[in-house]
Records
---
Amino acid sequence: MKRFLNIILPPIVVFILVTILLEAIVRIFGIAPYLLPPPSQVFRAMIDRRDDLAQSLLSTTEAALTGFALSAVIGILIALLLSTSRLIQRAFYPYTVFFQTVPIVAVAPLMVIWFGFGLKSVAISALLASVFPVIANTLAGLLSTEPALRDLFKLYGASRTAILLKLKLPSALPNIITGLRIAAGLSVIGAIVGEFVAGVLERGAGLGITVLVARKNGKTADIFAAILVASFLGMMMLAFINLAGYFLLRRWHASEQDKD
Amino acid sequence: MENRAIVGSVSLTLTNIHRTFPGPVIAVDGVDLHIPAGQFLALLGPSGCGKSTLLRIIAGLDKPTTGTIQTNIPPPNQTPPLRYPEEADQPRKNPNSNGRSSIAYVFQDAHLLPWRNILRNVALPLELQGIDTAQRITAARDAIAQVGLSDFASHYPAQLSGGMRMRVSLARALVTQPNLLLLDEPFAALDEITRTQLDLQLRQLWQSRNMTVIFVTHSITEAAFLAERAIVFTRRPARIVIDHQIDLPKDRATNIRGEPNFARQTRILLEALEKGGA
């Protein structure tokens, strides 16, 4: 419990301090609320619109989680495929960079044409935004198995499947978790950007929609409220991955060793 | 010992082994060597002289550019030699075995799987060979006991010292009851005291079992203490300078290193190393 407090307290203190500072700046300099609403007004907006925000959070979470899960599965599978041969890797790896460089805003209209407005398109946008780091990190992990260990497996006549399941995948686990950690944040970004273009324009349809509607109505405080909720979602997903990583790696990997 | 009769150790005949790497770098240049069954042989030479390459070739991890190795190890897809007396009248449950199962290899570093505890690390070779769980756990516990780490079976590699990890690596090599044990400078990274202890332990393990051991090292005292016979190599490319029978009693205690005869053995090896350009 004490350790948990040690982790959670410092950022909370920073949050409170920044909030107070912002409130003071806005009041002292008399900044117009439509440019930069004081934190008190943002919190008020969060309370007033809690039903709408909760509903939107739920929609965006669903899309981001779906996209993230697809990213994890598809990304790891693609990396496994690429790791099977140098030729396959040379032939296909450049095309996976497509996922990294494609502007989601430009592709999202295609999603609308193919899948219509709504969850499906938004989730795919989250997938496209987040899959590349999973592929790149998993592949790097799969390819960096220690040569001596590969020799050891060969010496005892290990099958390809055994080498994959008992050596390559576990070796790549720290890299896979790094990839998923990056993908978690990107999937939230992908979902919100996806909602801008491919979301259904109605109340509670997603945090991206909340932002769109608030901008149209000139309610800057609502935009900030939605941003806060969105970053909360991203942080929760990241925390979940970190927790999973901790339990999977704590006994053996240096990255989690000093946390015990 | 009843299983001594069943376990056959391995003899090897290397004929004119050459190994050239792209570059071209000649690592091994025409090695002829006969290693009788049950011998403890040290391959001694300066660092990077190609002796490790020779060991990898013997293990089947690398192929010679030219030259042949004859052994009495069953060729691939034959039933490997029986290792446990209790298995004698059972069919071998070993569909994956490629006949190399009677060779074990110890690397310069322990190279354990960090995500497995010690017991499961040591059981790995048997697991890969398709031996069933109960049997491989028993064999792994035996091997761990042999290197004196029974209390650490459920620890993870990161929790052990370098010397202990190396002993786990040794146990992993012994778990298959190998007929041929190959070691590539296994204790080079350890401190002097740990190294002396492990040398003694290895020597005793060799004496209690019927296996051929080939030990690569660049330490003269280690070679003299451990082996029955030492081959000294030149600087790269590896050629044989001398083939020396080490004239020391079979039972060797750690303090044998202080005796005059031991000094005589090491001087012979040292002179050979110097002659080889080390």
---
Amino acid sequence: MAYLARRILELIPTLLLVSLLVFGLMRVRGDDPVVIMLGPDATPELVVEVRRELGLDLPLPVQYARWMGGILRGDLGRSLRTRERIIDMIGDRAPTTIYIAFTAIAFATLVGLITGFYSAARRGRPADQGIMVGAILGLSVPSYLLALLLILAFGVSWQLFPIAAFSVDLRREPLVAMRNLVMPMLSLGVGYAGLTARLARSSLLEVLSADYIRTARGKGLSNRRVMFKHALRNAIIPVITIATVNFVHLLAGAIIIEEIFGLPGIGALLIRSIFMRDFPVVQGVTLILSMVCMLGSLASDLIYTIVDPRIRYQ
Amino acid sequence: MKTGGPLTIAVGAAGSAKRRRAPVSEGTWRLQLRRFLRHRVGMAGAVLFFLFAAAALFAPLLTDHSPIEMNLAEPLTPPGTRFPLGLDSLGRDMVARTLYGARISIGVGTVVTLIAVVGGGAIGLVAGYYKGILDRSLMRVMDAFLSFPDILLAMALSVVLGMNLRSAVIALGIVYAPRCARVVRSSVLSIAETEFILAARAIGARDAVILVRHVAPNLVGPILVLGSYLFGHAIISEAALSFLGIGTQPPNPSWGLMLNDARRFIMDAFWYPLVPGAAILLAVLSINLLGDGLRDVLDPSLRDR
């Protein structure tokens, strides 16, 4: 408990630094969002007036203080474009991104675990070598390339899956959503499956060389029993912890996949806001995603201590 | 673009070199080189990688076509005898674009890795060697950078720095530098405790001498392994930024831009995305194989893992 409290306390300075970075970054560039927003025909008086209305004429430290004050109250401000509340914009689009990332990590973990463990059990044989070649190939294909290849194969040639989906919301029309999710899931998941397979293989190999496995074999347990009763249980631990971290990274990784498949997720929102110079939205999305990322790595540390009681953090 | 996940693991392998290393002598290097030459997977990666580097270097000698000269009369000509890889949507020769694209990708990989290794390495070296408050504050800043997902920070920085090839390179250098800092720091922490460093201190060697003569050579291994993975990540990420329109700008032949253009014509020209796609895949694969080889050779404790 003390450990948890300290970890959370430690997050505070990091969070402050992150918020400063996010805020500062968006202001380094000279573009005036108001000028871009109003277009070339706007009179200078109008620009000044709109700037004042949006609070963009205040000194930077005041703007930062206002922004931070809002965050503490759960308010990320409003979009310069649509005047929508940013927290609502993110909330509306979060499910899409979460569905994509979640199905991708589930796919990666399942496929990676099975192939990786099988590979370790068949160490040095053709099956092992084949799986490891597949794993490094998977690792080397960028998600966006895989997405295009999948579109080419399934969408254009065989027309099995829609190449531009509009909804992956499993709460509404779950069947359509699942169909729409297949290609985004594979695009994002295959690379992580390769990664997971390599990790699962090395993890099982390490466990299999441990003394208690030799003991179990020595007392005459069958190979199957040794594997399922002793080895796999321990080998699975690092894989699950890494999956937690990977999941949060997949939330950010989904940005480019949403863009390709035309899905209305957080990534699509971010990219659109970047091109429209809608700084408050970019700021909000970046901050939220990095906070989730930090919490994810904290969660993975905690899961580690729960599944493996030998690990104690002071 | 794979984000922190894969890299963390790849780096974890290189970074957790907690074993104490013996001081490096020339014999060690020769031995490791011999081992690498015998590592079939690593060598396959190295050969493929050098082919890419050669293509990048000698692009003007390998093709007579210009990568940006348009031939609007024949857009999207499929691969054939006249144009082995076809013409793109603006009638530009795909062989030339792919070869010159290798220049961009290999160049990006090199410069990004250099920025990350030199910048991050220096920070890690100082933090790990001097410890204390300096270490804590430097690492806190590194942690702040590391708490952004890679792609997100790269996008934000690239946008701020001007949305072009140069901004993408600097952005990616900044994104990967904290990873180098962490790896170098943890290596330095373990090396600083070894007997030969204590001995050097005991005879009164200055800090600078210890760092350069005794600590740095022992960092070459972890940095080579990490650097090779960073190189691959940099190529993937630059292409991703360009694909999204916030990296290299047209008419430059970045593989990511080519993919983005190809995406719009995927219904009419199935071969078009395959060309830059194959280039990215093979380049990244070659570097990953090379990295696996380096890891096996430089850190044998991790072999088969």
